[in-house]
Amino acid sequence: MTSSDQQMNSISYMEPKLYKAAEAGNINPFKDRLPTSLIELLTPQKNTILHVYFENQRRGWKSTDFVGQIIDMCPQLLLQANTKGDTPLHFAARYGRSNAVKVLIKCAKARPTDPESGVTEAKKMLRMTNEEQDTALHEAARHRRSNVEQQNHVELCLMVDKEKGQSVEDSQGIQEVFNNWRFKRHEENRKKVIDEILSNCESLEYCGSHGRTALHAAAMHGDHETARKILKKNASLTRRTDDDGWSPLHYAAFFSKFYDVSTVRVLLEYDVSAAYIVDSEKRTALHLAVVRGNSAAMKEIMNTCPTCCELVDSRGWNALHYAAITLKRALAAMYFPRLIPKFDILIYEKDNDGNTPLHLFAAFGSYSQKFLSSDCRHAYKKMCGLNKQNLSVDDILVGNFPEEKVIPSI
To answer: Where are the annotated ANK repeats, by residue (predicted)?
Structure first.
């Protein structure tokens, strides 16, 4: 036998007539087969006849007779996963087969409980994750074909798994609902599903993708109502950071709309110390609010935690350094001290290279000469002194310095 023959023999495939029968939901070719032979009917991706059935049904297909009959013949197919770890329930949820989700759960609940673990077949099936670490709940929450159907089979996935402590699915499920239901017309369904998830879980400490909790998701999407509900269950989540060191307040400060900082307010109401949490680059939520030019978020943070403006990032930049280089540069360095008086003391603070915010403003500002040359600002320029390259603000403004003496890049 040649190596190519051996390779062909190692590939699973389903006979065309059986594949077409599974695709059409035709039970007849499978009736006389033993359960073991049904398990062995696989495509190259190890999809079973149930996988094939779910991915090929027309939208709106309501019949579930084929599913129930196949499971009666071979219950093991309920938990049989393909090469990507997807079970038939993953497929049913992914393709929006709400009726099929119901049948699969019903069949699993009818199966005996595992005597060793004490876990029911239904719970085991719902908690199985694929290679992306997604459960069927994630797929159900992600499904976008029909939000009424989506809500229905999300609730079906939840209703059988109310055991305390099963929270990985809950945190990630809430994130999926936020990520995929972004429009106002879906708002009512989204809230219902999130409330269902929250009512069925005891803890929300587990993290989803990128180390984010459900509170991160609520903060990112500016949902202060959900944030408050989550915090009532676990207020300590205000201090949980993701893989980049961002707390929920970092997300709220960065993503909040300029006219609505309710989420920032709710997070600080539960924990003022959140304003002092720094990310992997030592940036606070205040730094990020400045980056976004969100003056409402800045004022909310500063009114609650006025001393957090003393914190600097890994380069020694305070909030006003960020204002000098990231905002509408013509007014940034001089406008925010008037808007937030506490910022006034930051004008003379130097970073690791000896640059004050005005040094950076002079170097990067589009209209620096115009806005820093008036008499009322001469005092600022003189008090800023020299940086570590012996450059004053005036040196930078007029370009009067050796070519090698430049301000470090952002």
So the answer is: 84-106, 210-242
